[in-house]
């Protein structure tokens, strides 16, 4: 479908290539032990996963900053499960979480297979709303950094996906034309609708079980990319 059109493939990182939920769970498992948090991890994660997505949406929309994101997602969850934690501990846990998160290296199933398939045929890049220092460590520690020519993040762009400016910056830095570029991501709003406003083709890796839509190709496994590229 896109084989004779696309020259550049842009990927989101978290939830698309890097297995955020699994790596996040392992990080909380470690820091709960380190800080003596006596709380059932599954109970915590049941609240944390949707809360984290909600706070990232607020962050994307510019309604909260980085520090608020890191603090509020923990405070909200501990309050929801009625586990008393002082603010000083919340800040310590937030810092420890960021420190250890990128040390885990689990990838979304078939990530390496699809990158090895695409690399000889296309130029590969990352567009991420994640924080520069954390995302670089994630890619390096999981051994996928060498696949990508350019990594564009929201800090260098000054805006976050789905703002079209971050996609325009990505096109500028890669010297790719929008009609010859494709974005692969898990987030319908940030990755798919954002890229389409910049004229970029899209493939939606629907890992969040969102309802069907008509905003481009939908897949449920990265290997399905081979049907289109």
From TrEMBL:
Family annotation (Pfam families): Hydrolase
Instruction: Cite the InterPro entries for this sequence.
Output: HAD-like_sf (IPR036412), HAD-SF_hydro_IA (IPR006439), HAD-SF_hydro_IA_YjjG/PynA (IPR011951), HAD_sf (IPR023214), PGP-like_dom2 (IPR023198), Pyrimidine_5'-ntase_YjjG (IPR052550)
SUPFAM superfamilies, alphabetically?
HAD-like
The record's CDD domains line, in alphabetical order, gives: HAD_Neu5Ac-Pase_like
* Endpoints of the signal sequence: none
Query: What name does UniProt use for this protein?
Result: Noncanonical pyrimidine nucleotidase, YjjG family
Top-level taxon of the source organism: Bacteria
Q: What Gene Ontology molecular function terms does this protein carry?
A: 5'-nucleotidase activity
Q: Which organism is it from?
A: Muriicola jejuensis
């Amino acid at each position: 479908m896109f084989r004779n059109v696309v020259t550049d493939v842009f990927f989101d990182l978290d939830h698309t290539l890097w297995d955020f939920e699994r790596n996040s769970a392992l990080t909380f498992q470690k820091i709960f032990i380190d800080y003596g948090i006596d709380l059932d991890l599954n109970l915590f994660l049941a609240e944390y996963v949707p809360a984290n997505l909600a706070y990232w949406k607020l962050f994307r929309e510019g309604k909260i900053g980085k520090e608020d994101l890191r603090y509020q997602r923990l405070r909200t969850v501990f309050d929801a499960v009625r586990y008393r934690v002082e603010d000083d501990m919340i800040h310590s846990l937030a810092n420890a979480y960021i420190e250890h998160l990128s040390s885990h290296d689990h990838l979304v199933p078939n990530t390496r297979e699809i990158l090895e398939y695409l690399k000889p045929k296309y130029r590969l890049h990352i567009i991420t709303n994640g924080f520069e220092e954390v995302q670089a460590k994630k890619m390096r520690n999981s051994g996928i950094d060498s696949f990508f020519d350019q990594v564009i993040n929201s800090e260098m762009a000054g805006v976050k996906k789905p703002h079209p400016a971050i996609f325009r910056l990505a096109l500028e830095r890669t010297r790719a034309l929008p009609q010859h570029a494709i974005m692969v991501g898990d987030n319908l709003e940030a990755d798919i609708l954002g890229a389409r406003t910049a004229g970029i083709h899209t493939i939606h890796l629907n890992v969040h079980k969102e309802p069907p839509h008509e905003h481009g190709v939908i897949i449920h496994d990265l290997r399905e990319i081979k049907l289109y590229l």
